[in-house]
# Entry
Amino acid sequence: MKRLTLLSMAAVAALATEPLAIQKITIEADTVKSDVVANELSSSKSTKMSGDTAAILSDIPGVSVYNMGSSASLPVIHGMADDRVKIDIDGMTITSACPNHMNPALSYIDTTKIEKIDVMAGITPVSEGGDSIGGTIAVKSKAPVFAQKGREALINGEVSSFYHSNNQARGVSVSATAANDKISVNYSGYAEKADNYKNGDGAIVKATLYKQANHSATIAYKIDSDDVVALKVAQSNADYIGFPNEYMDMLGNKSTSGNLSYKGKVGALLIDANAFHQDTDHYMNKILSERTGDMPMYTEAKESGLNIKATLPYSQTQTFKFGADYDRYRLNDYWPSPSGVYGGMGPNTFWNINDGERDRIGLFGEAHSQWSEKLSSVIGVRYDRVSMNTGDVVGYNNNTGAAGMWNDKVDADAFNALDHKKTDNNYDLTAMTKYEYSDVTDIELGFARKTRSPNIYERFAWAGGYGSTPNNPIKMDMAMINWFGDGNGYVGNLDLKPEVANTISTTISLHDGAEKEWGVKLTPYYTKVKNYIDVERLFSGAYGQATTGTKTTSVEFLRFVNTDAHLFGADLSGYTTLWDNSDNGKGTLKGSLSYTRGFKDDGGSLYHMMPFHAKISFDRVSGAWNNGIDVESVAAKESVDTLRKEPLTPGYALVDLRTGYAWSKQFNMDFSITNFFDKVYALPLGGIDTVNYRSGDYVPLQGMGRSFNAALTYKF
# Structure
């Protein structure tokens, strides 16, 4: 992304379209581009072809991922993850329809369909969405292309395939477009399949296999040079995805969506609007080749929304941006009684969420100002009204359960007797300023007050948290509510309040005058969260299952509660061009390091804080060749949430090698070796391994060993 210069009315309008945001980084198709990383630095993108879009974000300073299923990693920004991060896909809000969050928003778009991803890891403008406190990830799929007026019709496309040796992963993507100067039609498809991967010792990590596919079709109409209307219809299908850090696997996820968008001008106003709807049918059980047992779980979700953003260039020094957005979400989560005899798991269908409702309507206004040639600012306010409700629930059994170990009826009756309707009135404020001190120095400073209301499961999951609780129970119901990968069980809380985060952050940037040869950026930050949604301990119990036979271990059963917390840290990144000449091509060195810590005000670390980590990459581009080496180092994780029995993980370092060759403008190939030294390591944010452990307590999930990866791409 080019650096914003704010010297004219046109530039101010551009700023409103591409908002000032502290630590904003853009990934564009093949290339990582940002005001931190030099333009034209490329990575071997096609060997990273994946349905796990979140995984490609981990190279960004301040961003890491919870390692979940193959397509369901959860992005973490400065220690905040999942629903705390606003994720926008072509203007669509997609809520995870699963008590284990196995189908998060980024699982519905693969990397081959993406035009760019804007990651706002620092302070985010209110125009980029509300109901979040941890930053914004805005994904844009490839825009429609049109033939030039008076020219022949445009027909082009792309076919790609890849292979990864470690887990025998193989996949293919196809995209084709036909267009004249007014109408553009595109089809894109993607499919991949993989077996279980192996760790650095060659041991199979069970429940890491997967098979999935997605399809999309887009038709767009260009009204004139500034106005385009487009309709995109997409379908995503996951046949199966293993989740080694959960008690369940995903055995089916089918989603169908439609998104109607308009971008253009109405008078002086620049309009960006869309309306969308998505239906999701989700099924969890256990992949029997990986673990034993039968427990069917279904979720059905419907989500609709409307977004309208208007930009008004008011003067040569000011632009106003304002708009509204609406999201309507409906969820049913039910677990039929399984076949066979499983204690208290019957005879009823267990209704975890019955007619769950979550509606949000938001209004915002933002002023983009250029006070002088060097000083600019963005100030915005936002209001969101979040309304939630749910119906009465039913447990598996109508008594206190087998051997007194279940209390479905007691809990259900107690929950049903309460008022479920909740309404939150949330207010956000963002203020940012940028001062271009000199041609080589920029300073940014920002403050944000951001608010997030609880999700449906945090408020309405009920089993184990109401009525009487027997001593030392086996509460399977609670263990099924867990998107943290920690092996514990969770119950909701009707009394939860919205989280309110106050963040201050500054960025100091040093670079050459043209911002092409070298650059360094430092971003320290501090966030105080009031009513942070954490947990309290209800009781301990025995639950768990090994790959052979049944093995139990003590886990915690927890209730969501509000507490106060604070998070702080810093990101440092930079790049330099080592050489650039006709004989040796261009050599570039880039690197980043990040430090994040989070603590409860009453003591103890927050869950899943990424340890100190750093990455250094060397790239050389010469003619048709591009080559690179990446070295990543992660410190030992010593700051853990003891209440959740979060495991410590040792430090490690990984080395990746990559190369690519462009035979022509149409055909190129890429090759890489990841984890070159076949290092054995535990994933710091991988949670615990519920499938592969052998004895004692759960152990951390291990990462993938060495893999030889290849990819081919042909464009026509």
